[in-house]
Amino acid sequence: MGIRVCKFGGSSVADAGQLRKVRAIVLDREDRRFIVPSAPGRRTGDDVKVTDLLYRCHKAALRGESIGPDFDLISERFRKIAADLGLDSKLHSDLDEALADIHDRIQNKARTDYAASRGEFLSGLLLARLLDRPLIDPTELIRFDSNDRLLTEETQDCISERLADETCGVIPGFYGAGPDGEVITFSRGGSDITGAIIARGVAAEIYENWTDVSGLLMADPRIVNAPRTIEQLTYRELRELAYMGATVLHDEAIFPVRRSGIPVHVRNTNDPEAVGTEIRRGEANLSPTGRITGIAGRKDFTIIALEKTLMNSEIGFGRRVLGVLERHDISWEHIPSGIDTLSIVLKSDVLADRIDALLQEIQTECEPDSIEIHSGIALIATVGRGMSHAPGTAAQLFGALAKAGINIRMIDQGSSELNIIVGVENADFERTVRAIYDEFVPLNPS
Ligand code: ASP
To answer: Which of 167, 227, 315, 430 has CB atoms 3.0–4.6 Å from 219's, for a disulfide?
Structure first.
């Protein structure tokens, strides 16, 4: 039987009730062998995440203040979980000891990453006891260099060596160790990355990412009423949708598992029966899909539209334009072009007050006949492996927008035929998403 690595997010470990659900899920399958918890998240809208409290304690200590008030909230939170779960007195004394040690270290100005990581550590302590599995500290498994960059191969070796003889275990998320053995954390939300790295390290059959939503939705539910869940998609489709802001996973969590071809299954701790979303490497492994997999978009792009007669035969025009952007340290998003036109699509916030200097330099370097600026543009990506080699998809999409009276300002189709991106006025953004969804998604699921 293969191995499943299961990561449980902050809401899944937020209180004793949630942890009981985690226990039931883990015990439901023997192959759920390695469990990666986050720190307890919010229980209600106005609650504070344990990690945020830890950052607050650390800041107070640096200011020379007592960390007492915030640290008491953390201690109470873990003690209450332990009591509500009815864990034994040995766990209570281990917890007290760990809390006292962490308190003293943070008060004495321990490093930021150490402070931030303790929520995951304490979650791990409780969960290991609840599941009766060994607690394996990720400082033994995950290695960073002196610039806090993950050492991928060294980490892989540590994991395969250290976990070779472990049949199961609880591995706190979010951190590992630097060259001096000190704790280093990933960026916020980084327990997703830990889970992916462990999954790769043990050559898992599947990486289960348990959260509080039943997977990725076909469109933003704030725009489309009750959109369907995407049951399966490829890593490439996910990348296209995530770029436009639709994501349930930390971006960096994709790479370790994608590289090894390990599927990720996003599932809901509060609704374990729901199918969730499965992300796989190749289309061959997926069941047939409708034309489109999902729609995602973002507002606030700017288009710099350049026109020059005979641009097509002017060698070096494109290079000079991009050279100007490079010198200004500006990354571009898309470059749709025509025979005598070239448009550069950029995020408006990266341009900010640099626009005049940039245009001046493009004018001098490239001597276009005209430069036009269109700001307030929203981009909407319609993504789907089912679109490739399916004649009529673009016609259907543009027809739907025409019917809705939406003016398209820009069109870009990736050569992989995996997506069609349209640019519209910011004000038309929501209408565009709805028009595309209604066109491609039948009202009643078959
Ligand atoms: N606890 C960390 C955070 O709040 C990491 C995580 O939850 O994945 O960012």
So the answer is: 227
Is the shortest distance between the CB of 195 and ligand 1 below 6 Å?
no
pLDDT in tens, 84-102: 999 989 999 999 999 999 9
Mean pLDDT of 415-432: 92
In this prediction, residues 109-119 reach a mean pLDDT of 98
Which atom of ligand 1 is nearest the CA belonging to 49? 4
What is the whole-number distance in angstroms between the Cα of residue 170 and the centre of ligand 1? 16
In the chain, what are the domains? Answer: 4-212 (3.40.1160.10), 294-440 (3.30.2130.10)
Asked if residue 289 has pLDDT above 90, the reply is no
CB within 8 Å of 432: residues ≥ 6 apart: 297, 378, 380, 401, 404, 406, 422, 424
Q: Is 51 a pocket residue for ligand 1 (Cβ < 6 Å)?
A: yes
Strand, coil or helix: 420: strand
Separation CA 383–CA 260 (nearest Å): 24
Give the per-residue pLDDT at 310. Answer: 94
- Our answer on whether the CB atom of 188 is closer than 6 Å to any ligand 1 atom is yes
Of 6, 51, 77, the one to substitute when testing ligand 1's pocket (max ligand atoms within 8 A of C-beta) is 51
Confidence (pLDDT) at 129: 97
